[in-house]
User: Which sequence fits this backbone?
């Protein structure tokens, strides 16, 4: 970094950051490779959160770097409105090749937020296309996160993301979250209790009239709210209710997609199929921003049955950007070469044992995990929500381990190339940090 930059007066308004607090004691990452970052002053930091849930193959992987370098020298940009370029079609085919059966159509976006809004718009347009235009209502879930655009914010269920921005989109309702500390604390994998929470969807539908509901959107595992793992039978019950009432079920797989749960996608891990699902993050290994919506064949075909002309009045200037597609193909090649889309399954028990070793540690009130994602929930400090987890996050960073904190929860999602010793180091650092936090 140029040392002449004055961070206190910097033009950069940082996202989801206490800017004044950060700029007084900045944490600057200057280089990355494999499982590690290096700070601006040369310290090595083990990445326990895959960048921001996205660097699934580890940092600066050669095939991805080379693919982007080659593409930017060959063609930097080409439009996909009434034009096309081969690499977008190639990448879409490659993605369809790892998707569940009957998901052979891919609509490109630039982020998870855009993917959520795109999926919601496709759902509304589909209901109209099939003669169900009265279905305008969208249902999200408490503690859900679907990005920060107006659609995703409206169906999202994290209060701080919503309270100062107004309702965003009319006709939105929410079902109950699945977190149940009293019955499910310290569950390994899917909790035993809570399938009945899905029945709140029946109650919401009864209140609003199910014939007005277009779609329900949920994360298979709620990531940003602190890794809330669905109870056994919960997702199956949601699927049954949506099918019963003609409602589309959308899975937000921005975090769970691309190997995080030991399968390419969470729907394959759980054996529960949505009608659409959203992705981003691990799609390009975080190298170039990109997202997508996978659409069931039957939904796509309903649009193609319309008269000739534009079937969906939606898209982005950078949908299917050449550099992003190149990064995505390099990412899929890397995943395939190293078996990363399923490697998490072989490490899940090691990860589970390591994270649950913190049961009984100071301040810990819950530990939860699935695949290579997990969370340690801390008892809030009276009158200072989030402060304890933030201090633990800082202690870990000082010890050379990067983790994520959200509220009073520490969250973990290491790159899928992680080794057993690195897993142990992550949770040893957390244990030491908790001893030092009052």
Assistant:
């Amino acid at each position: 970094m140029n040392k002449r930059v004055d961070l206190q007066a910097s033009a950069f308004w940082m996202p989801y950051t206490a800017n004044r607090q950060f700029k007084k004691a900045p944490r600057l990452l200057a280089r990355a490779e494999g499982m590690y970052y290096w700070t601006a002053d040369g310290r090595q930091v083990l990445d326990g959160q895959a960048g921001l849930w996205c660097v699934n193959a580890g940092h600066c992987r050669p095939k991805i770097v080379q693919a982007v370098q080659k593409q930017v020298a060959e063609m930097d940009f080409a439009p996909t409105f009434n034009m096309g370029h081969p690499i977008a079609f190639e990448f879409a085919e490659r993605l369809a090749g790892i998707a569940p059966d009957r998901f052979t159509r891919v609509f490109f976006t630039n982020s998870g937020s855009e993917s959520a809004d795109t999926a919601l718009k496709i759902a509304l347009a589909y209901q109209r296309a099939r003669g169900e235009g009265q279905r305008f209502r969208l249902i999200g879930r408490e503690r859900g996160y679907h990005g920060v655009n107006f659609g995703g914010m409206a169906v999202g269920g994290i209060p701080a993301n919503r309270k100062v921005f107004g309702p965003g989109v009319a006709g939105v309702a929410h079902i109950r979250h699945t977190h149940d500390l009293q019955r499910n604390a310290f569950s390994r994998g899917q909790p035993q209790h809570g399938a009945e929470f899905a029945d709140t969807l029946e109650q919401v539908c009864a209140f609003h009239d199910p014939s007005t509901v277009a779609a329900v959107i949920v994360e298979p595992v709620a990531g940003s709210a602190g890794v809330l793992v669905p109870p056994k039978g919960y997702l199956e019950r949601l699927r049954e209710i949506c099918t019963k009432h003609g409602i589309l079920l959308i899975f937000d797989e921005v975090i769970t997609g691309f190997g995080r749960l030991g399968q390419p996608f969470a729907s394959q891990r759980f054996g529960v199929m949505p009608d659409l699902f959203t992705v981003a993050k691990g799609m390009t290994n975080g190298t170039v921003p990109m997202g997508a919506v996978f659409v069931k064949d039957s939904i796509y075909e309903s649009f193609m049955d319309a008269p000739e002309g534009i079937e969906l009045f939606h898209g982005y200037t950078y949908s299917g950007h050449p550099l992003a597609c190149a990064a995505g193909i390099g990412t899929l090649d890397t995943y395939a070469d190293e078996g990363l889309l399923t490697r998490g399954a072989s490490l899940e028990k090691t990860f589970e044992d390591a994270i649950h070793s913190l049961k009984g540690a100071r301040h810990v009130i819950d530990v939860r995990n699935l695949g290579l994602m997990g969370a340690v929930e801390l008892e809030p400090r009276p009158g200072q929500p989030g402060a304890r987890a933030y201090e633990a996050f800082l202690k870990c960073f000082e010890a050379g381990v990067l983790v994520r904190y959200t509220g009073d929860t520490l969250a973990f999602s290491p790159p899928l190339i992680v080794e057993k010793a690195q897993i142990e180091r992550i949770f040893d650092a957390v244990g030491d940090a908790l001893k030092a936090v009052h």
User: Anything to note?
Assistant: The chain is about 35% helix and 15% strand. Residues 7-61+341-436 form a domain with the Aspartate Aminotransferase, domain 1 fold (CATH 3.90.1150.10). The first strand starts at residue 29 and ends at 33.
